[in-house]
Amino acid sequence: MEVSFELTLQIVMTVLAGISAQVTAEFFKVPSIVFLLLFGILLGSDMLNLLHPHELGVGLEVLVALSVAIILFEGGLNLELRDLGRVSGSLRNLVTFGTLITLIGGGMAAHWLAEFPWSIAFLYAALVVVTGPTVISPLLKQVQVDRKVATLLESEGVLIDPVGAILAVVVLDTILNSNASPLEIFSGLLLRFGIGAVIGGVSGALLGFILKNTNFLSEDLKNLVVLAGVWGLFGLAQLSRSESGLMATVVAGIVVRASSIPEERLLRRFKGQLTVLCVSVLFILLAADLSIDSIFALGWGSIWTVLTLMWVVRPISVAFCTINSDLHWRQKLFLAWIAPRGIVSASVASLFAILLTKNGINGGDSIKALVFLTIMMTVFIQGLSARWVAKGLKINSLEATGAVIIGCNALGRLMGRLFQQQGESVVLIDTDPEACDQAKAEGLPVFQSSGLDTDVLEEAGIDSMGTFMALTSNGEVNLVLAQRAVEEFQPPRVFAVFPSNTGQNTATNKTKVNSAFVDQQLIKTWNQYLTEGQIKLGKTCLKEQGLSLQQAHFQALIRTGEILPLLVKRQGSLQVVKAAQDWQVGDEIIYLLHDPRPKLLKRLSGGVQLSRELVAEALPEVEEVPIASPVEQPIPDSVTPNI
């Protein structure tokens, strides 16, 4: 009874520590593995001596194997085949040639710098070829780099995990069976890949078929069917050939995702939660089982080994594997910087240390220590600096410029020209041939197609654009278009013009769709004003002196429908005005002013006409604000530059 309670207490403490680490990491906005490692080491035998993973015995190996199966299946489930197509060449090279470069470079570094025997050095290199989706995915959610780089890093992390694990097993088999011929080694490698791919593909297709055709099952039960199926196919693959189960789970996840099952989002959410739990438990246990003395015993040579892996081997691998890609140098440099190791390296290294010790081969504890040192250094150095590196290289998706605008009506064309004159690229999409022709006549790039066509959106360059905006005359359609864009492409800023009602506003909060400008009905009115030429294009800058009065005056004009704010330039960044925009000192606002005077009268008085040469000026109707008190002075007219 005491033994069972002791094991129960160990598991309870592990789960509590793991989830606490996840919460702490979420609060401080850093990769969760940082606190998982810290909490695990803190609770381990070298510190507080509360956790003793070795007491689990063989159960630890079982827990590691089943957890890694869930983690890799969830990684495959999150891979989008269309996204993979965009980076297929670079991804293929990183998983193949990149693995080989890391294996050779890492092995040489471990032998010459850490003074490991050649066999142990290459076993270490095989363990650290993986980059770890459990570290990459949370990191990219916080850093938010552009879509192409994020897809490449996530896909590499998922696909290279089974490749690295199988490669490590082959290297280990070679060490344990030194009489094996090169043909036997190579055939063992291919056999594991082949068995895993076949079992994973067939099982994934079967799971997809079951999920789509068993309507009598509840959604919760379907999630559990998938869990049982994943462990079942993992066990079948492992029974057929050791370590082929890792490849099987990844392939099964990709096939299930490609099956387009109706409950895909719920399944991904369920598997994502399981993955967080598995990662939390495994990292705490494996870190608690780590001996700090074994890491210090490695010496400075081990630190130089890891630094060489990070700053020499990885850049060479990325440079070679992306040589013919369309990635620019900033993206390549970020790829070269980010390659943190994760749970697969840690778990497999822990198992290998046990196997080497059982077979009387020295170096098991040293390999485990060096792998954990690699994990800690890559996570702390690369993970914690990723945000600043992305910002310095200007590949943060939040800083992306340009716009894809759905709708070639008068307002859509005006917005397109405003973006163009600010030096940003813009593409318009509409199904109306006449509206498209009119946009082309104004010098705007146009696609005559539906905004729901993902191929057209890709061709329009939505992946590299900072803003997506739906401005058609149908508010409900705009909301659908914007939500679809969020789901498929996740642009940094998504706007739609739609009627203001509670249901739709709730939907937009969940899908990150911003309500643009004002209510849909008023937009129709402004389109009419634009068509009839009853507008002026103005610009004002909010100054600290008299700010509250200027804000109140501006808001009053918006409420009465006399002006329509379109764009706001804040700290050098051009943004579409939201329906509930907050104004700050220094905001440069571009807006439309309704000018109801007859066209003939405006011509005689020299009024501003809307033409292809757009000029925003400081308009007296908006700029001249009466003095409210002796403290506040009239706000002078701003300078009138062209935009």
Q: Report the biggest beta sheet as strand number plus sense, adding barrel if it closes.
A: 6 strands, parallel
* Gyration radius, rounded: 29 Å
Low-pLDDT parts are: 502-510, 626-643
The assigned structural class equals alpha/beta
Q: Approximately how much helix is present in the residues?
A: 55-70%
Strand content: 5-15%
- N-to-C span: 78 Å
- Give the strand order of the largest sheet, numbering strands 1, 2, ... along the chain: 3-2-1-4-5-6
Average of per-residue pLDDT values: 84
Tally of contiguous helical segments: 27
Principal-axis shape equals: elongated
How many strands in all?
10
Structural overview:
The chain has 643 residues and is α/β, with parallel strands linked by helices. Helices cover 63% and strands 7% of the residues. It contains 27 helices and 10 strands. It has helices at 2-28, 32-43, 58-77, 81-86, 88-95, 97-112, 118-127, 133-143, 147-176, 182-213, 219-240, 244-258, 264-288, 292-296, 300-321, 329-337, 343-358, 364-393, 410-421, 433-441, 454-459, 475-488, 502-511, 520-532, 547-559, 599-604, 620-623, and strands at residues 403-406, 426-430, 446-448, 467-470, 493-496, 514-515, 535-541, 563-570, 573-576, 588-594. The protein has a 6-stranded parallel β-sheet, with helices on both faces. Strands 7-10-8-9 form a 4-stranded antiparallel β-sheet. The longest helix has 32 residues, at 182-213. It is elongated. The N and C termini lie far apart (78 Å). The relative contact order is 0.09.
